[in-house]
Amino acid sequence: MAILKTIFNSSPFHAVCQFIGYLSFSCLAFFVACFVCTLVADASIERQKIIESAMSPDGKLKAVVYEHIYQIGRYRNINVSVIDADSQPERERDGNLFSFTDASAKVRWVDDQHVQILHTGKTWRSTPFTFIAFDGRSLNVESVSLKDNSN
Asked: Under 8 Å CB-to-CB from 83, ≥6 apart: which residues?
């Protein structure tokens, strides 16, 4: 008994216990900080999710419908862009034809120079309109409301 009392009351034993306590607390604090930072970063990072893409009949361009997420659950923006076949859509980039809030959209190529945007939102552009694509061709863009039509 005296030996156990001597061990538990010794300075090395207390030092080891303190070290284990500090190490445990530091590890716990590190993991909590990582978890909180991940949640904050995930909620605030802007990102894009491609919903649909359609290649032009000649394969040089593609029309892309993508969702731009500003903050999870707060603001949903649907964009439609016509870009080079090997490009990825970007916010604020040339080629963005339409932008809808809380709507859905699809794209359909009629031919190499005519693309239709089928949507459920309100548009700010008059249609049809002409758009000069990256390869220099003139595209006729038509907006078709799915609320009014059954396409």
From this structure: 61, 62, 64, 89, 93, 95, 134
Q: 133's torsion region: left (phi>0), alpha (psi -120 to 50) or beta?
A: beta
Mean pLDDT of 52-56: 91
Gap between the Cα atoms of 118 and 115, Å rounded: 10
Q: Which residues pair with 48 in a beta bridge?
A: 68
Residues 42 and 64: their CA atoms lie apart, in Å, by: 24
Report the candidate in 135, 25, 32 with the shortest Cα–Cα distance to residue 84.
135
Q: Is the pLDDT of residue 86 over 60?
A: yes
Q: pTM for this one? A: 0.59
Rounded Cα gap, residues 82 and 68, in angstroms: 16
Q: What is the pLDDT of residues 102-114, one digit of tens each?
A: 678 889 999 988 9
